[in-house]
UniProtKB/TrEMBL annotation:
Superkingdom of this protein's organism: Eukaryota
Matching Gene3D superfamilies: Arfaptin homology (AH) domain/BAR domain
Pfam families: BAR_2 (PF10455)
This protein's name: BAR domain-containing family protein
Classification lineage: Eukaryota, Fungi, Dikarya, Basidiomycota, Agaricomycotina
Species per Swiss-Prot/TrEMBL record: Gymnopilus junonius (Spectacular rustgill mushroom)
Length: 318
């Protein structure tokens, strides 16, 4: 009984006349839009919007297109593995290691006090950054260790190669760190505000434009009703046209104001500046680090070439 009372109260608060008017207008707008789409309305029967409004529409469309176009590419900075396709294989390997670690850890924690052998608690697997600079650092470090630890009888060429690989790894380690800093800066100072402009400011302007479109359709539908109204309904139809005209003027002014605000907003240029600043910093660090390493490795290369004498080694005949 209480639920029925609440329902009656809710129904009593509904303005059915107003709701019916909105439904009627919505239906009329849909019919008008369909007739226009099918070419059943003469061009001179479609209300012309101000040229300023149409120019602003085109500029906002261009701004929106620019945001979407650049965002489609720069969203790769949200995932650090964008330059390292091998990361899929490494992720599968890490997943296997993680599962093995969890199982062993569970056994080590829960088999205590039983007659079953308790395995030693393992060390948790280390996570690795999935970027090309980090991968080059790991590969060069591993290669340097392999060359240096192999028995070489004190061969100078092996020592030089191990040193060169170590230098290469050190250079790329700096680049890898700068790569992470770049991605963080781009996400915080470009991607987030760039998406905010697209999803907030531009979206609001687009909604205002949609309101103008609906209002224009309602006006043209009202004009058609006035044109076809019998004498008894002429006055009511004329009032509906006047109200629709006032509504269109008001909504057009609001849309113009919102579109101008979006177009005059300096935020996109500021965001773009932050994007290139982060990229410039990364490439500057990379250029400096690799330039220094390249000079040192070149010295090792020259020294190795100077001692290399292929003609002095005799190949024994079988």
């Amino acid at each position: 009984m209480e639920s029925w009372t609440k329902l009656q109260s809710s129904l009593g608060n509904i303005n059915f006349a107003q709701a019916g008017t909105k439904l009627s207008k919505g239906f009329s707008s849909s019919v008008q839009a369909t007739r226009e789409r099918l070419g059943q309305v003469a061009p001179d029967e479609i209300t012309e919007l101000p040229q300023e409004y149409k120019d602003l529409e085109a500029r906002v469309d261009a701004l929106r297109s620019a945001h979407i176009s650049l965002l489609k590419i720069t969203k790769v900075y949200e995932s650090e593995n964008y330059d390292y396709p091998v990361q899929i294989q490494e992720s599968i390997s890490e997943l296997s290691s993680s599962i093995g670690f969890n199982i062993t850890s569970f056994a080590a924690s829960n088999l205590k006090g039983t007659n079953l052998p308790v395995p030693n608690a393992p060390a948790p697997p280390q996570s690795q950054h999935k970027t090309l600079p980090h991968a080059l650092t790991r590969a060069a470090t591993s290669a340097a260790h392999a060359v240096s630890s192999a028995p070489n009888g004190g061969a100078a060429e092996a020592d030089r190669l191990g040193k060169a690989l170590g230098l290469y790894a050190g250079g790329w380690e700096k680049v890898a760190s700068a790569r992470l800093d770049q991605d963080t800066a781009i996400r915080e100072n470009f991607l987030h505000p760039w998406q905010t402009t697209l999803n907030a400011s531009i979206a609001v302007a687009m909604k205002a434009r949609q309101a103008v479109r609906v209002s224009r359709l309602e006006l043209d539908s009202a004009k058609q009703s006035l044109k076809n109204a019998n004498p008894a309904k002429q006055e009511q139809a004329r009032l509906e046209v006047e109200n629709a005209e006032d509504d269109l003027v008001q909504k057009t002014e609001v849309a113009i104001t919102l579109m101008k605000t979006v177009l005059e907003n300096p935020e996109p240029i500021k965001n773009l500046n932050e994007l290139i600043k982060a990229q410039l910093m990364y490439f500057s660090v990379a250029a400096e680090a690799l330039s220094t390493v390249q000079g040192e490795i070149e010295e090792l290369s020259v020294a190795a070439e100077g001692e290399y004498s292929p003609g002095t080694t005799e190949i024994p005949l079988v």
